[in-house]
Amino acid sequence: MIAPVGVAVVGCGFASDFYLATLAAHPGIRVTALYDRIAERAERAAERFGVPVAENLSALVDREDTLLVVNLTNPAGHAEVTEAALSAGRHVYSEKPLTLDLAAANRLVKLADSQRLVLACAPANVLGESIQTLWREIRSGAIGAPRLVYAELDDGAVHAMRYREWLNDTGVPWPYRDEFEMGCVLEHAGYQLQPLTSMFGPIRRVAAEATTVMPDKFPPDESGPLGPDFATATLTFETGVVARLTCSTVAPKDHSLTVIGDGGVLRLADCWDFGSPITARIVGDWEHSYLTRPTPVEPVRSYTPHEFEYADHRMDFARGVAEAVEAAVTGRPCRLGAAQALHVLEATLAISRGESIDITSEFTPPEPEDWAR
């Protein structure tokens, strides 16, 4: 029997539960150590998941039983932690975004390449059954040539919710100050940009508008910097596909992805759900409508949610870690690779700033999952 591969986790904040819980579904991976700059958070996670706590970051990345480091720190800390891990010879899987600026991201990509290390980046929803099914339908020609995409990532009016009461199962509060400062684009747009660039290749131009619609998000006794809570962008892909991306934390929840082709329309209901339903409408010759009624699409394989998943995140977050581990062990290209992460970051930053610019970074689109071909 092959021994499980060791991975260590840096950052035991709110999102760490998504990973540490779902790693239980991957018996080929063993968590070797945890570290957080707030010792209490690391200790609570260690007690819950039965994992030792590293004394410091250097001690964690230097562990000989660790092949890969999972970077779940605050976005402002992504670059520092990833660089430390790569410099120690460890492969890295980072939460999104890869960094907060392109110069740092470029440096990390070059460092990983120079040491022949895997540098992978979330989100991993493109590896889920629902998006893999959508991608299969597009490749099969079910709706003809794809022409237009509507990608939505509206997550509800967060400022109107009881967000100060949100805790993960380990008791860590939702980091609302960080979320408000980063804004909806840096926090959420990747859930659509990662699948879109996987399916349709590089983005060549972004034309975006971004703004803060609700300036009074903080409680009455608090204040702080705010990123945009609404953005919309037109994305032009190298393949000729055009997409409209809308992202907000103001409008009611809508995580849908709609692909319009010459011969019909495919609609995925929720990009945060590995088991999301997909419907197809096919072009026909009818008196009052040119499309058939929505017909369910048979998934490429079924997805069974894990009991420890959160209700609004029906995703196996650890599947991205498993993808990076497999790529590191086998030497094959990673489906969540560094060059694509850099490309997604370039587009994300442009959208978050409301810019209209050409996107210059290059990457080779990944292959679909073997089970989805």
Automatic annotation (TrEMBL):
Domain GFO/IDH/MocA-like oxidoreductase span(s) in chain numbering: 132-266
Pfam families the record matches: GFO_IDH_MocA (PF01408), GFO_IDH_MocA_C3 (PF22725)
Keywords: Oxidoreductase
Keyword Oxidoreductase: yes
Gene Ontology molecular function, alphabetical: nucleotide binding; oxidoreductase activity
Bilayer-spanning residue ranges: none
Record flagged with keyword Oxidoreductase: yes
Ranges of residues in domain Gfo/Idh/MocA-like oxidoreductase N-terminal: 6-119
Any coiled-coil regions, as ranges: none
Name this protein carries in UniProt: Putative dehydrogenase
Lineage: Bacteria, Bacillati, Actinomycetota, Actinomycetes, Glycomycetales
